[in-house]
Amino acid sequence: MLPTRVQLLLSEGHSCYRPRRTGERKRKSVRGCIVAQDLSVLALSIVKQGEGDIPGLTDVVNPKRLGPKRATKIRRFFGLTKQDDVRKFVIRREVVPKKEGAKPYTKAPKIQRLVTPQRMQHKRHRIALKRRRAEASKDAANEYAQLLAKRVHEEREKRTELRKRRASSMRK
User: Fold this and answer.
1) 37, 21 Cβ separation under 8 angstroms
2) Which one of 6, 140, 152, 159 is CB 3.0 to 4.6 Å from 32, fit for a cystine?
3) The pTM of the whole model exceeds 0.90
4) Ordered mean pLDDT values, 10 residues apiece, the chain (172 residues)
5) Contact 87, 111 (CB under 8 A)
6) How far is residue 115's CA from residue 22's CA, in Å, rounded to a whole number?
């Protein structure tokens, strides 16, 4: 335990170090102490609560500001089935407007992954486009194969014609 930083010689097996070669060691600068005078803020969590409350920390309960946003998480939170409407269960929060005399209003998050008829329509459209593309490419491939076969056949015909001509000229 030292108040300054320490240069440790780390080798294989030490945490925070992965050797690149066998037997390689490397010096790394680490804090000599967990808590020292050069720290301005400490992030702590209460592990065990004593009999007395810590003023401003354990005597006040702050509710969570935001509820779940994803449809499945809202379902799990309220124990809903797939048939229940999730939109009724969205946690809304009251907003006090800054203007004088304006009525307070509520805000709710936009639910993500909510299955709506529009989303189903988009999905159907995507699948139809994919199917159409596949059919078009299949037709194009067939057309090309036919053209290729025709060209090969013509080439073969030409070759046989040449052979015949040569053979007939040799006979004379």
Assistant:
1) no
2) 6
3) no
4) 90 94 95 85 89 87 88 96 93 90 92 95 98 98 98 97 89 68
5) yes
6) 54
